[in-house]
Write a structure and sequence with these properties.
The chain has 578 residues and is mainly alpha-helical. 65% of the residues lie in helices and 4% in strands. Its main location: membrane.
C-alpha cells in the first residue's frame, strides 16, 4: 500500500516472503519481488521487493556454520546489525510520514479555506485565539453535524498558518480542491519510482545499497522541506506548487527505491529459508509504526501544526543519518563479485549504452512473457484493479473529517481501527483460514491462495460499500473493520502469480507486478480524488461516491479471480464447499 501524507507518498511495505533469483529482467538489476516461500507465521505466501544473488550452496553454508566460507561468515556477523537497523529504519520512516498526515491535511485545508472564504478569518489576535459565533446560514446539508458546533475557533501560527474549525472549511469547494491537490500529488509522487527504477537498480549493484538508500531518504527529506516552505509562504506561493516537491524524490528514486534497497540489503544477509520470517517481521513493524504514527500526529496537532510537521521532519533526518551506520552488503556474494570483475576486465561498452541495452532486453523479455502467458496476464489484471481499489485509503482521513464533522486529530485516532484490524488479520485470521483450507479441506497451497484471495476481495467489496453508506461514525468504523479483514488480498494474488510460473520467470512476473503497481498508483490518485470531488458537489448519499468507485474496482478484481481456473496439477484434490 502506498502511504500518503497530504500528497507525500511512501510505498507500503507488504508482509512478504522471498526466494532467490538471479536477476530481475524488467528493472535490469532493480530489486523487485521474487519467488515465494511459506511463512511459518501466516501459513501463506506473499512477496517482497528483493534482488538476491545467492545460490543454494551459499544458503547451505549459512545454515551450517561448520562449512562456512569467509563470505558466509561475514554475512553471519553482519546479520544482527543489518536486521536491527532495517527494523529501526522502517519504523522511523513510517513514523515520520504517518505523523505528518493530520497536520499536512489540516494546513492545506485551512490555506484553501482562507483563500476561498477570507471573510470567516479574523485578523491575528494579540495573544489568545479568536472565539466568535459561527456566521449565519451555516448548518445545512452535509455539514449539519459540524455546524452544530457552538463556537468557531481560529488559531494563528508562525508563517501565517491559520487553522479554523469553521464549518465553511468543510464546504464542497474547499474539500474538492483539497482532494484534487492530493490526488495529483499521489500521481507525481509515483513518477520518481518509475523513472528511477532502472538506473538506481543498476547503481545499487555498482555503488552499493547504502548510497542509493541514503540518496532516496535524502530526496524525501528535501521534498518535505520544499512542501513546508510552500506552506510558510502560502500568502504569495500557490498551494499547487507543492506538486513540485515530488521532483526532489528523483534524487534516489523516492519511497519505491527506498523500500527496494531495504529489502535487497536484508536479502543479502538472510538465508532463503529465513526470509519469510524476517519479511513478515518487517511488515509487522510497519503496521505497528502505522498504528501509532497517526494518533501521535493528531495529538500534537492540538498544540499547533508546526510541532508534528517539524518533529516528523526531524525523525526523517534521523533516519537519513541512520543509513550511515548500515553495513554495505553488496560485496557479500562471490558470484556477483566475479561477474563485476568480468565486466570491468572484458567490457568496453560505455555505461550509458550498457544501461540502455539492459533496459531494452528486460522490456523485451517481459513483453514475450506476456504474449506467451495470456492466462497469467489475465490474472494480473485482477491485481491492477485491486491496487486501484486499495487507493481509496488515501482519502479516508479527509472523508471522515468532512462527513462526520470530526477534527483531523479525532479522525486520525479512528483510522487506527483499520491498521489494528490489518495486523490482527495477518497474525490471526489468515493463518487460521490457511490452516483450515489445507488441513481440513485438503486444498493445495495454490488453491488455498486463490480461494482466500477471492473471499478477501468479497470483504473488500463489503467494506467499501459499508463506508459509502455509513451515515454515522459507528457504521464507518464497522466498514473499516471489513476493509482490514480483506487486507491480505494483494499479497495473496502476488503469491498466486509466483506459484504459477516457472522458476526462471519469477523475476519477470514480479518486476512486471511492481511496475504495474506504480503505474496503477499514478491513475488511482486523480481518479478517486475526482470521485470525491464529484460526490461532494452532488451532496447527500453521493458523498460516498469514492467508496462506490473503489467497490467497483474490487468487483472487477474478484470477478477475474472467480473466472480464473488453476492448471489441473495445481487444483485441490478436494473441492472447497464454497
Amino acid at each position: 500500500m502506498t502511504r500518503t501524507s497530504g500528497g507525500r507518498s511512501v510505498d507500503r511495505i507488504d508482509t512478504a516472503t522471498d526466494t532467490d533469483t538471479e536477476r530481475t529482467p524488467l528493472l535490469a538489476g532493480t530489486p523487485t519481488p521474487t519467488a515465494t516461500t511459506t511463512s511459518p507465521f501466516l501459513h501463506e505466501t506473499s512477496t517482497a521487493t528483493t534482488t538476491t544473488y545467492v545460490n543454494d550452496s551459499e544458503d547451505d553454508n549459512d545454515n551450517n556454520p561448520a562449512n562456512a566460507d569467509p563470505l558466509t561468515h561475514l554475512r553471519a556477523v553482519l546479520r544482527p546489525l543489518v536486521l536491527l537497523l532495517a527494523f529501526v529504519l522502517v519504523f522511523l520512516l513510517e513514523l515520520a510520514v504517518g505523523m505528518t498526515i493530520p497536520p499536512i491535511n489540516a494546513v492545506m485545508e485551512s490555506i484553501i479555506c482562507r483563500q476561498m472564504h477570507p471573510e470567516v478569518f479574523s485578523p491575528p489576535p494579540p495573544s489568545s485565539p479568536v472565539i466568535s459565533p459561527p456566521p449565519p446560514g451555516i448548518g445545512t446539508g452535509n455539514n449539519a453535524v459540524a455546524a452544530r458546533i457552538a463556537e468557531r475557533i481560529i488559531r494563528h501560527y508562525a508563517g501565517g498558518i491559520v487553522l479554523s474549525d469553521d464549518p465553511v472549511c468543510k464546504n464542497p469547494d474547499v474539500q474538492g480542491y483539497l482532494a484534487m491537490l492530493r490526488g495529483w500529488a499521489n500521481t507525481f509522487d509515483c513518477i520518481p519510482g518509475i523513472v528511477g527504477a532502472v538506473p538506481y537498480g543498476i547503481l545499487s549493484d555498482r555503488w552499493g545499497r547504502r548510497p542509493v538508500l541514503g540518496l532516496a531518504v535524502f530526496g524525501v527529506v528535501l521534498s518535505f522541506v520544499f512542501m513546508y516552505a510552500v506552506f510558510y509562504f502560502s500568502d504569495v506561493v500557490p498551494l499547487w506548487v507543492t506538486w513540485f516537491s515530488s521532483g526532489f524524490q528523483l534524487i534516489g528514486g523516492g519511497g519505491a527505491i527506498m523500500i527496494a534497497m531495504l529489502y535487497t540489503t536484508l536479502a543479502d544477509v538472510i538465508p532463503t529459508s529465513e526470509r519469510a520470517t524476517v519479511f513478515f517481521q518487517i511488515g509487522a513493524v510497519f503496521l505497528a509504526s502505522q498504528m501509532v504514527a497517526g494518533p501521535i500526529g493528531g495529538a500534537m496537532l492540538v498544540w499547533g501544526p508546526w510541532i508534528p510537521l517539524l518533529v516528523g521532519l526531524a525523525v526523517l533526518i534521523v533516519a537519513n543519518l541512520s543509513v550511515l551506520f548500515l553495513p554495505e552488503t553488496m560485496h557479500l556474494h562471490a558470484r556477483k563479485r566475479v561477474a563485476e570483475d568480468g565486466d570491468r576486465d572484458g567490457s568496453s561498452t560505455p555505461k550509458a549504452t550498457n544501461l540502455w541495452q539492459k533496459a531494452c532486453a528486460g522490456l523485451a523479455e517481459v513483453w514475450n512473457f506476456v504474449l506467451g502467458n495470456k492466462s497469467l496476464a489475465f490474472l494480473m489484471l485482477s491485481l491492477v484493479f485491486c491496487i486501484l481499489g486499495r487507493y481509496v485509503g488515501e482519502i479516508l482521513l479527509q472523508y471522515a473529517t468532512d462527513r462526520y464533522g470530526w477534527s483531523w486529530s479525532v479522525a486520525s485516532m479512528v483510522l487506527t481501527i483499520r491498521n489494528a484490524g490489518s495486523l490482527v488479520t495477518l497474525l490471526c485470521l489468515l493463518p487460521v483460514a490457511s490452516w483450515l483450507c489445507v488441513q481440513r479441506l485438503g486444498m493445495t497451497a495454490v488453491a488455498k491462495d486463490l480461494w482466500l484471495a477471492r473471499w478477501s476481495g468479497v470483504t473488500q467489496i463489503l467494506g467499501s460499500l459499508l463506508l459509502a453508506a455509513a451515515v454515522n461514525g459507528g457504521l464507518f468504523s464497522f466498514g473499516l473493520v471489513w476493509l482490514a479483514i480483506g487486507s491480505g488480498m494483494t499479497a495473496l494474488i502476488r503469491s498466486l502469480l509466483n506459484a504459477l510460473v516457472e522458476e526462471h520467470h519469477v523475476g519477470t512476473v514480479n518486476s512486471l507486478v511492481g511496475f504495474m503497481e506504480m503505474v496503477g498508483g499514478t491513475a488511482a490518485g486523480p481518479l478517486l480524488a475526482a470521485s470525491l470531488r464529484a460526490g461532494l458537489d452532488l451532496g447527500g448519499a453521493w458523498i460516498g461516491l469514492p467508496f462506490i468507485t473503489s467497490g467497483s474496482f474490487f468487483i472487477v478484481s474478484v470477478t477475474i479471480l472467480w473466472m480464473f481456473r488453476l492448471p489441473n496439477e495445481s487444483r485441490s484434490s478436494v473441492e472447497p464447499p464454497c
